[in-house]
Amino acid sequence: MLRSSSVKYSSLLTRFRLRGRALSTQPASASLGCLPTTDSPVVSKLAFFNSVTGDGSKIPSYRVLDGLGIPIEGAEVPEACISEQFARRLYENMQLLPTLDNILYNVQRQGKISFYYGEEAAVIGSAAALADDDDHVFRVLAQYREVGVLLWRGFTIDRVMAQCFGNHEDSGKGRQMPVHFGSKPHHFHPISSPLATQIPQAAGVGYALKRDPERRSKNVACVFFGEGAASEGDFHAGMLLASTLPSPTLFLARNNGFAISTPSSQQFYGDSLSARGPGYGVDTIRVDGNDVLAVMSAVKEGRRRCLEGGRAVLVEIMTYRVGHHSTSDDSFAYRGRQEVENRKKIDNPITRFRLFMESRGWWNETEEEELKSRLKQDVLAAFKRAETLKKPDLAELFTDVYAEEPWNIREQREELAGLLEKYGQVWEPWRNELKIFKDEGKLSG
Asked: Which domains does the chain have, with CATH numbers?
């Protein structure tokens, strides 16, 4: 019985081997088929891979202008949208950002505001590509450095100062930390302090937009974050959600080389963030973040893919953080001062675009000095005005969270009203402090 079974097995194996030899002239992928539940072809060669380019090379970075503002060979300048007027608007906004940064950094050092973040001018390229129009709305979920997006959309310098000082003109009513902007009219979601929380939120916003017939193919959720935030689990959760469901979510990763004091070389070993996109089945591009035209073109193409395909897109914007991480950071403790000065001179995004404009006869030295002087005056005027305005009504402490005031909030409000009535005018520290509020601390019990 055992011998008979062995003969039958041997005969069956021989037939399979003969059949295999008969098909061996076909490519391995065709002869061996695919694994179940996947389109991955079966091969007979043992081979590991560690690159998305196929040949082991690094993912390239898209660029339009070189360091001297000259279009590189083969690059296409977006002539259709780069008129002299538009270029001037780009440049003015790029110059406005460092002007704001310098003044608000000094204001924080003087103790007049509690905190401040700055950012490189390259964010203006993204802002220009995400400008709303009559048919499309691009909803922004930012991190801490995207005030340029708001300024491009018409957010005034006065409103920037109002938010940083937390006065009564602040739409957030002084409840947020400085530079944690939010503006419903500008489709700019309020910023949260916890790192990377906006990434999965953006994927959810994108999914909600796709489910709404009136906004489908018209709205995109756009989320900004740094490469440090991409080390959080929220990055992977957001990418997985937006790619699997899928949803029109544009992931804009600012890779400026540092997560506070940790250089990117110590954050990840692979080919930076762009290598992660294909792993989630997401269209991906890496772009020179110091080239405003390249950033604008890449983000504009990314938004088109989101709108037309209803799927996520990842844009990695490569730049360098020349400033400190924030006003609580001294970056020269972990990098050389000369390194920063060299980057300012060699690869300055403002200088690069200025040279491009000068080459076309759109800019000159006189206009440069006039612009810098005007912007400084405008920012200083807004600063001086903001610091004289009073804080929001003290009563706002208890509003906006609930549609109807619950019993516990009512009890707290009544308790504070009683304390103010008893001590507000007799205890000097309270009497002085209440004067800074618009309603001078008058609460109804």
From this structure: 84-386 (3.40.50.970), 394-434 (no CATH)
